[in-house]
Each structure stands twice: as C-alpha cells, then as structure tokens.
Amino acid sequence: MKNTKHNEFLDQNSSNPEISSSKRKILTSLGVSSGILGASALSQHWVKPVVNSVILPAHAQTTPTTAPPTTMAPTTMAPTTTEAPATTTTEAPATTTTEAPAVPAILVAPMALGVVMRGATNVSQTFQVSLATMPAAPVVVTATSSVSGSTFTGTGASVTFTTTSWNVPQLISYQDTTEAPDSMANESTTPSKVTFTASGNGSGYEKVKAEATYTIGYFGNAGVTGQKATPGAVGTRSATVTWAKPKTRATVVGYRVSHSSDSTDNVATQTVTTESATFKGLGVATDHTFSIVALYPTGTTGGADSTAASTAAISIR
Known about the structure:
By secondary structure, the protein is mainly β.
C-alpha cells in the first residue's frame, strides 16, 4: 500500500520542477543539521529501497585460493638400457638345381667283375638288367660275350621290357667256358666283355648299349716251382725241401708235403705255411721223393688242393 502511494506521489510531482527542487533542499537541510534523519521526519510517502544485488569494489572481491604446490618425493630413475641394434640377416638366394633330362640307358649290375679267379671250373655270373627310363614301345636287351664259346643259361641271352616293367630288374646268367690258364704267366691281360644291346622300333632305345667287364685269373691247379731237396749231414738221415710260391693271383693258404722212399722208414706228411719243410729219421735208401702241393681256399679245384704236385728226389746215405 505504501509503495502504491509512493509511486503516485512521484508520478504527481515529477512533472513539477519546483516541487522536486523544494523536496531536495528539505532533505539536504535535514541531513546536515541533525546528521541522522529519523524515520518520523520523512514524508509518509518515502519508501525503503529494495536491494537486488551488491557490487563490491575490485579490491574487496574474493581472490580464488590457490593450493600450495605439492612437493613430490624425488624419484630415482633406473638407468636407460641402450638396446643393441637388431642384426639384419641377409638370406642367400635360393639355389635352383636343374636336373639333367633322363637319357635312355641300360642299367647293369655288376658293371665290372674285376679279376675272376678260377681253376678248372667255368666263370659264372648273373647280371641284373633294367632300363633307366620308360620306353615308348617294348625293348629287347640281348647279351653277347667277347669270349668264344661262352654261353648264357637260365632265361637265355635276351630279356624284354615293356612300358610297365621297364624298371623291374631281370636276370641274365652268363658262363665263360674257356679253359683256365695253367699259370699266371699265361693269364689273359685283356678284359673279357659281356655286351648288352637294346632294340625295339619306336622305343627310343634303338642301339643303346652297356658293357660289363672282367679278367680271368688263375684259381687253383698251379703247382709250386723251383722245388729242391737237400740232404742233411752224413749220418743225420735228414733232408730239407724248399720251393717257390706258385705263380697265381689266388690266395695260397699253405702247402702239403709228403715223402716216399724205397726204404722201410715211416715219415709223416707235413702241412706248412712257408715254402720250406725239414724231414728227419729218413732211412738209408737210394731214392727219397718229396711231393709238394699248394693249398687254396675251400672250393677250388680238387677240394682245397692244387692238382699239380711238384716232386724232388734225393738219396740218403
């Protein structure tokens, strides 16, 4: 209600400058003379002002409080480890292996027999034969020998291979029927050959060949040479027999030396491994004969003996 009257008072007098000026003078004089203006001295139309906000001067405004800096405990850092630079491995370029194209060939095993030792028996050997590549048509492989009179036994001298059996070995058995030499001096120094020749039109194996070689060596039958019997001192009735080793490539395992005479003595036969034997207890006789036989590995001609005995004769007085 008071506010309404106050507003009306202001509205009525605001347009009259004289009245407004008079009121200001009254207010000024009241404030100077008394220092305090009581509420009763004011006009009944004076209204208490409404304060909506207060603005403080800049120096009185609240300054934001900043927290003191936090003191961090010193941290001990581990020493920095310097890693070694990674090693770069350079790989060598891959090697490309180029295989040679398969070439038609006859495979024979064994290809070489070396020196074939033999006595009166024949040289026999079985060969395994196959092809290195698949033929385009059937192939016939035929074996021949450089030794006159040689034969092929079993399946014979020829075998046949097809497009499905070309790599399956087949057997050809061979027999050399030539006579053995009677000593190493008469041995053949030229290798004997067994030749395998292929045939088959359109097979790719036309005239393809393979050879197996061997040399005949003497095996058994070789007798000792240079045999000699020497009487002991007079009255000792003893004798020593010596000889030379047989001329052969075969292995001699020993000698058997026997004695015979026209007396009644009984001297045992000796088996020795050197080229010498001594006999004692011989009777007084005109003729004493010593026979030396070379011994060879079991399976040679005549069992384990040579067939040739060498003799030496002496007289014991």
